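call fold(seq) -> tokens
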Amino acid sequence: MQTKPHNWAGNIAFGATEVHYPRTVEEVQALVAQHSRLKVLGAGHSFTPLADTTDALVSLKQFDPTITVDAERSTVTIGGGVRYYQLVGELHQAGYALHNLPSLPDITVAGACATGTHGSGDANGCIATSVAAIEFVAGTGDVVTLTREEHGEQLRGVAVNLGGIGIVTRLTLDVQPTFTMRQDVYQNLPLDQVLEHVDAIFADAYSVSLFCNWSRPFINQAWVKRRIPAGGTIDAPPQWFEAMRLNRQVDPVGIADADLCTEQLGHPGPWHERLPHFRLGYMAESGEELQTEYMVPRQHAVAALEVLDRLRNEIAPRVFMGELRTIAGDELWMSPFYQQPSIALHFTWKPDEPAVREVLPMLEAELAPLGARPHWGKLFSLSPEHVRSLYPHLADFQALLKHYDPEGKFRNQFLDTYVGIEN
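ret:
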């Protein structure tokens, strides 16, 4: 037990005075019964007070880490505290893969799903789209299990749950046969090429990430992750939309060791060693950075990029690196991609929150009319009323939270503000 824990970036000091580490569902139920306010703390990678609470935090670090593959159903079931680095290698060894992965392997699967964290790829939905079943301890103390087959609409409501329904103790995820990929990095992609060929660029591979510090009209690095057909091979051109392929490892953000990044030199490798940006062994205890991300409907991708280009003099001095990715739309009520295939505009800021707070309203004033939705776990300054207006199923989600947590044990100021739950 410790007092006043911080999030990974150190910009949030949690209000909780206790952190508990249950090992079983029964211990989780006991904690829910004992406390009037509590929240689950995953890996602490949220930059907003989404996981903050005034009473007790619950960490599932010591919870049952069992990983069970169901070959007949093509699913895997995991404990609520399992992190990606614990899951992906074992899943690959069993002959299976997930459709998408986050950039960092140290975050919890349940936390990634709860916040709408996404990975990338034109045809790839966010991470929570793979949720086939969820088990959680509700605010009532009951153990609730929802499955796609029996509770499809409710599952769409709780897959991205913002930590408001209870403590997730089990997740069942869709899997597919394992596959091989290659990753190549290209340097100095002219922004004009992106503006002219944005759809072709992001459709050219299974996953494409464009890194740009907005100091000049070029994309610094394009990370192109291609899926290799079973039993086949695939080549990568030395020049890609006027960018040249690199023959050395690089760090996309410019603040880490390139050797900590996944293999970029075109050598084939398993999906879990190519889809993330950082290797499985990369587990930084803290990060001297801040992050923001907005999801803009794909039809407004060019307009959004033109906004960033116009604001480059405001962005460049404050940012380590930006990243552009695409994500498929989905039907999850509180997903930033709800019925909205999107381009994600990500910013890894220097750790100066007042300076970041100065530029956010400038960005949002121009991106909001394009329908931009902020990442739930990253810094933004949009008004609560505007954020609520972006989610057509908000009232249905509010009703779900009230149903499973009638006393508001898992509520906090963030949820009250941006989800607008009323007593």
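The chain has eleven helices and 20 strands.
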